[in-house]
Amino acid sequence: MTTTLTPTTIITDPRQRAGVLITVSLALMMVVSGVSGLNVALPELAADTGATQTDIQWIVDSYTVTLAGLLYISGAIGDRFGRKYLLVAGLIIFGGAAAAAFLTSDPTTLIVIRAIMGVGAAAVMPTTLSIITSSFPEEKRGSAVGLWVGVAGAGAVLGLVMSGLLLEWFSWSSFFGLNVALAALALIGALVLVPNSVDEHPPALDVVGGLLSLIFVAGLVFGIIEGPVEGWTSPRTLVALGLGVLAGVIFVWWEARQREPLLDPRLFRLRGFSTGSASNTVQFFAAFGFFFVAMQYLQFVIGWSPLQAALGMLPMAVVLIPLARNAPHISKSFGYNRVGSSGLFLMAVGFGVLSLITVDLRYWLFVIGLILFGAGMALAGSPATTAITESLPAAKQGVASATNDTSREFGSALGIAILGSVLNNVYRSDVSAATASLPPEAAEAAESSVAAAQQLGVAAGPQGAELVASANDAFVSGATASLWTGAGVLILAAIFVFVRAPRKR
Fold first, then answer.
1. Of 411, 387, 388, 413, which Cα lies nearest the Cα of 399?
2. 375-401: per-residue pLDDT in tens?
3. Domain coordinates of the chain in residue numbers?
4. pTM of the complete model beyond 0.90
5. In whole angstroms, what is the distance from residue 454 CA to residue 473 CA?
6. Domain 263-505: which topology?
7. Is the separation of the CB atoms in 307 and 344 below 8 Å?
8. Fold for domain 14-199?
């Protein structure tokens, strides 16, 4: 095992390579499931902690905001100071924060802790891939990267199922116990097996660019999440949105003038780079926005257990995983612009079918929507990543990898924020008629979340049945509106990819 800090540390021992691959796969699964797995626990978490719908959005999205906002700068830190050091530091931060989350039940504290977990995840995610590309022999690198891509995709669904299994017997906090276990296992592997390495010519640390990217993501997400509660024209909402947009504009201006930028804005002139990034962003916008909405619908409205809800999503993975393996070949045969746009359009059709949900689940129809959505994501996903990586030379593959990761996490953060806010806005509007006769404090609680409305209705006995029914109807209306919003975004992205993406086969 090599622990010396060197520019090139190639692992020649097959057993060590296998151990390193298992280690980085565990670390990557920890990061990905940290986004998806919590969705299963949200209904129980909301009921137990009294979290509002806005609190729930922030508990999920504070993680993705810091993760997306810090990916570029953390990759540069690893290249300069050592990838193993950054991986170990990220695992310690993530695991320590998860342990703190396991011990708390206050929504505000959870939001802060989840943001800290996102800092750790931002250190871990790009490092897992760069360790493979820097320490595996060239002939072994392709298959290892392929496994990395598979874990990145399957980790989201596995996170749902693992969380569902835990919640069958334990409380919602057991999700954070799973995070601690994964972090501990990966940390042991990192300390024992992973070699350290740096770039021979590491990029300069663009701290200003890193800070601007974080403010950009945080400002936009804050404004979008708080809008339904504070009002879209309230000073708080407008300042947050304005700050986010301003930070984004300054980021572009700043990066265009750096000799070694975190992200050169001129790269988006490349057709493959721009369309691949846009496609990735919209795919994960739709997928994680859908997970956020669907897990609550299946548990709050339909009454399924966490495990039933997680298993109910598996048809999407059944079609997504095998089709994703063949998507690159399909793309080569028919052209990226055709296959990528078809995948996005198929995802939109899936959302259209899923929007037919009611308070009485027709699962066969739900499955059709899941299959269409999963097939579309498989067709759009691999070609988008390929379009990004093939747009840049070998010396710029670090930028390509960081952009691929950041576009996905940025899309996840926006999807949870925007689709969650559409859900929240419609729910609050529709349920208000049923809460008009309630005392002001009870009415505000019922309008803040479907969990609170159901608890108030159950506590009121037979007289509360109307409130529960109205809350369920309002939630379904909000979920339907969010799905149609997602479908519209997917269709616009499909048109953009078809018109702009490379047509080469």
1. 388
2. 998 888 878 877 887 777 765 666 777
3. 14-199, 207-257, 263-505
4. no
5. 12
6. Growth Hormone; Chain: A; (1.20.1250)
7. no
8. Growth Hormone; Chain: A; (1.20.1250)
